[in-house]
Amino acid sequence: MTYTALLSLAILRDDFLRLDRVGLLDFIRSCQRTDGSFSTVPGSNEMDLRSLYCAFAISAMLNDWSAVNTDRAITYIASCRTYEGGYGQAPFCEAQGGTTYTAIASLFLVPRDSATSPLTSAERELTIQWLLSNFHASGGFSGRTGKDADACYCFWCGATLQILGAGDLVDKRALAKFMVECQFKYGGIAKAPGENPDPYHTYLSLAALSIYSPASVMNPDNINTASWILDPLDPLLNARQDTAQWARRYIPATSQGRDA
Ligand SMILES: [Zn+2]
């Protein structure tokens, strides 16, 4: 909730003058558990990689990592990695596209020397291969091995490939055609063709299209390309680039960058 609230305020171009940054850092600190994972609220046993990602995204927006034990958190992320190259929501869970996104995005949100990578080249390669193995001829991604394609995974898997520098391996035209087929005749986008639309799948489909804009590669057979041109997305924060820049500029405690 805190992560989405901060981004929602950034979308509204709030100046964040009333943001209780000290309280925010205390809250994040109190959510981290001894194994490095994060609970949804302090003291709760309810935890998975989504909470960890939110804590990392908030730290990135604050440009302040003092509330996070990153070494422990990164060790926890590694413990969620599976033999397939994806990540489960907790140790020993099946690899899933959504939690793989939260794991990889978290690893790449941590400030680091530009010459270093949070994954070995073998790990990166295996993760890319697993994500691509979930890409279907229909243009959609499935979230787990052997499952049907689902529009939301076009973002979860597609954004992860983009973060890993493998976005050029995604067939943008096929992905956009899948989205067209998932589009409901009265508006909105469903998880699969013929299903009912909902805001979750509609948003994530548009987010995927923002990363994989079909405009430059698509010959408009039956697709109105003009309506699919969307502003580029920051795949790490899952927000439009201009919103992510606003957040990174105005949420940090110092006035650094505000006059840039
Ligand atoms: Zn879905």
Number of strands: 2
**Beta-strand content:** under 5%
The mean pLDDT is 91
Largest sheet: 2 strands, antiparallel
Decide which structural class fits the backbone: mainly alpha
- Distance, first to last CA: 30 Å
Estimated helix fraction:
40-55%
What's the number of domains?
A: 2
> Strand-and-helix sequence, N→C?
HHHHHHHHHEEH
Counting copies of identical and different chains, the oligomeric state is single chain
Physical arrangement of strands within the biggest beta sheet: 1-2
Q: What are the bound molecules?
A: zinc ion
Number of helices, where a helix is a run of at least 4 consecutive DSSP H or I residues: 10
> Overall 3D geometry?
globular
Low-pLDDT stretches: 256-260
Instruction: Report the radius of gyration as a whole number of Å.
Output: 19 Å
